[in-house]
Amino acid sequence: MKVRRATPEDVPSLVALFQELDRMQADWRVFTPRPGFYDEVGRKYREAMSTPDAIVLVAEDDEGEVVGMAYGETQMPSRFSDERALELSGVVVRAGYRGRGVGRALVREAARFAKERGIDWVELKTFAPNRGAMAFWEGLGFTPRVVQLTSPTEALLERLDEA
Asked: Which of 65, 82, 96, 106 is most buried as measured by Cβ atoms within 10 A of its Cβ?
């Protein structure tokens, strides 16, 4: 298995992996992706390939087939600080390749990217009910920091009117 920076030729594989990730997360997703979203994802990855503050990585198996990906973008995650963080997103390993160290290798390369740029923090968002993802990330040393709570507006109004 090899991890490398993605090229424009990888974009169809990246979008396919992102769609696989989206299907895996469907049970936890609150907001419906807008029409054309996957095209936007492809454009975002393509643009990031030429941006010095972002990295798009792919993992290939021994036959050169793309089996995993990760996207990282430098952010200032706090309104209270000028500290930068590398925000990981779209980290996914194709079914059948999970549990073989592919995800760890992608995260290692993203962390190296952050270190080379003097970025002290790596952050990400994942769905809390996704126990497999939570175990993976916590096993790498990530700890929960913020909880996003959502409620359908109508249900919230009904509860408030009952009180």
From this structure: 106
Give the CATH fold of the 2-162 domain: Aminopeptidase (3.40.630)
Residue 119 tokens, joined: 């970025």
Secondary structure class of 127 (helix, strand, coil): coil
CA distance 153 to 158: 9
Q: Residue 114 is which amino acid? A: A
Q: Please, which residues have CB within 8 angstroms of residue 107's CB and are 6 or more apart in sequence?
A: 70, 88, 91, 122, 140
pLDDT truncated to tens, each residue of the chain (163 aa)?
999 999 999 999 999 998 988 888 888 888 888 888 888 999 999 999 999 999 999 999 999 999 999 999 999 887 888 889 999 999 999 999 999 999 999 999 999 999 999 999 999 999 888 899 999 999 999 999 888 888 999 999 999 999 7
Residue 125 phi/psi, 5° resolution?
-125, 140
Q: Give the span between the Cα atoms of 117 and 106, in whole angstroms.
A: 17
- Stated as kind and residue range, the H or E segment containing 60 is strand 54-60
